């Protein structure tokens, strides 16, 4: 493909780019998860000031592919793609990755999340130096299927719960201690933290938030103390968060992602009304610390 050109996406291309992503994400064999499924939602995200960096590849005038990266404040880049619509996959994806890598020099770790049936992307990522991470399943609870709570809901987090929530989180997620910080460090209209406590310790918590793309509520974190598991606390926490997201915030659905290592939670999600939507696999690449030097 000697006529292949790769350049940053411009606003006049956002609608076309969004349609490409929607089309690619319709089929499991080309789907890259957490990158949007509806063109109007994808285009809205691309138009925001804090939008992901997106590069497009054109063969002549035709849009051959695209690759994006959303960079957070911790120098971590969350990849969206690669999406290849025409031409040799390795050539288009390779050119896009090289340009995207050069365009994001501050990123010290890249993360990709693709459908487990997207074999071309999996092979490409491994060839580009990514390591395979855990498999994961994406569940969704549509608003129309929201079960009644039929039990006292969990309480909204207060400052007195901070030590207990922190202690339980450190036990449940020892490799991700910082994930709970946005939820315990102040109220936010798009985030909520709900807890169960016996007055002395935190028995369980659920952290929920609102996403723009796709527009849905999301269960970010859930933990229940080992001493009270299988007593209904997990279901009540999930439903407390789901009722807040759907009934109070008007979300059309609630989603969550569960890693293979936490497969024991799947039965809980099924009992709570969540439906398996996709199975995916994570890939990551750690950069050298001297990259920007």
Describe the protein in words.
The chain is α+β, with helices and mostly antiparallel strands and 293 residues long. It folds into two domains: 4-129, Gcn5-related N-acetyltransferase (GNAT) (Aminopeptidase, 3-Layer(aba) Sandwich); 140-280, 3-Layer(aba) Sandwich (Aminopeptidase). It has helices spanning 14-24, 39-46, 89-103, 119-127, 162-172, 181-184, 233-248, 266-271; strands at residues 4-8, 53-59, 62-71, 76-84, 109-115, 131-142, 155-156, 191-197, 202-212, 215-224, 253-259, 275-286. Strands 1-2-3-4-5-12-6-11-10-9-8-7 form a twelve-stranded mixed β-sheet, with helices on both faces. α1 packs across α2.
Structural class of the secondary elements? Answer: alpha+beta
Choose one word for the global shape: elongated
pLDDT < 50 runs, ≥5 residues:
none
The largest sheet, given as strand count, sense and whether it forms a barrel, is:
12 strands, mixed
- Count of helices? 8
Say how many strands there are. 12
CATH superfamily of the largest domain: Gcn5-related N-acetyltransferase (GNAT)
What is the residue-mean pLDDT, rounded to a whole number? Answer: 91
Helix content: 25-40%
Q: Quote the beta fraction.
A: 25-35%
CATH class of the largest domain: Alpha Beta
CATH topology of the largest domain: Aminopeptidase
Order of helices and strands: EHHEEEHEHEEHHEEEHEHE
Number of domains: 2
Largest beta sheet: what is the strand line-up? 1-2-3-4-5-12-6-11-10-9-8-7
Distance between the termini: 34 Å
